[in-house]
Amino acid sequence: MKRSILFLFGLSLVLNIGAQSHTIKTLTEDGAWCWFSAPGAIYTHDSDHQLVTGWVTADGSIESARLNLNDHTCTIQNVSPQLDKDDHANPSFLELKNKDVLMFYTKHFDQYVRINTLNASGEVQNFGPTNKITIFNQKQFDLYPRKGVTYANPIQLSKEKGRVFCFGRWTGFKPNMMWSDDNGQSFSDAKVYITNKPFNDDNRPYVRYYSDGQSKIHIVFTDGHPRKEVTNSLYYACYEKGAFWKADGTKICDLDQIPFEPKDVTTIYKASKDSGRAWIHDVTADKKGRPVVVYGRYPKETEHLYHYASFNGKTWDDHLICNSGKWFPQTPEDQREKEPHYSGGQSFHSHKSNVVYLSREVDGVFEIERHETNDRGKTWIVTAITKNSKYDNVRPITPRNRKKGDANVVLWMENQKYVYYTDYQCTIKYKIDE
Asked: Would the pTM of this model clear 0.70, i.e. be above it?
């Protein structure tokens, strides 16, 4: 695959954000992110012991942040100035086995996946120049004739000789995948791996991924966008050892036989008009390696029901967490909301599948809460992370790649303004929550 190098030299800003780690802190006064490029934050394990994250500024610049968890200083770098004024362009991150960090991002409807590298040697403190990976190839485009690159989700599997996978919504408006055997310097041709048959170029499954970096990649996806699909359902598959599998271990197909259809995999939730269309929020695995999922149901556009579903080896235990309220975008007066399924959002604890951080509407303002279950979702213990807030707090995330000794951190957006994914003014907050 052809690659080109674009040299961008971003400036770095070092901030001292204080030593009291258990209070709410601000990483940036100007940043936003979406759900479907992930992980949006990771722990790194070089000598500096950092958390790495990033966002899109209000003018469309792609920024990275390196938070030192020892002295609580933060280095912010403008990696790609004014690339795309759209929160879909937020970066995702991967720490390689050699401790280098790769930063992946795309524009909303781009032609490339962009990658920048932070070398673990420490000789250069910033992410380096941009490597632009060309996604489209004619053979795939002939089969799935629609172009538009959005999202990037990187994962490295140690039991596949360190192969780096990257997933996104690319050719055909469908979930695509590609892989690299040289630590992300070059990639295979991207391939569609989920599609409807016959092909429909307006149908776009939304996907979340989780892996412990060993051998398995958990994949949870929808039929499409809930605005388009009246009975948008939720499905599960996993990748392992060159093949795709159902939750019960039944093989779906080998890698060289993709794509597969939603009907070929495990159904988590079958939507109906009464129970409501769904949208995926996050996926992880329990101590036995079984998938656990949080998602939203929408029996009404003003009623966003958060659900927790865990696979017990045979079936899915699915329980309501709470009614989170309505959408969080600030709908202009006398206008219909463009994104009525934009929930406040949910994310798993970085190390505990029974702990969920979520955003729900409390007295008209979205607040962040910690919900913990000890009975697979039947009952919940609730702890407020934010309260009595002036602005909405939404889209909580926790860093991936956590190891023993890493503090548990939750990050989220505080919205001074969020009208649309191209019209926002947001702050990124964080808290260490043990």
From this structure: yes
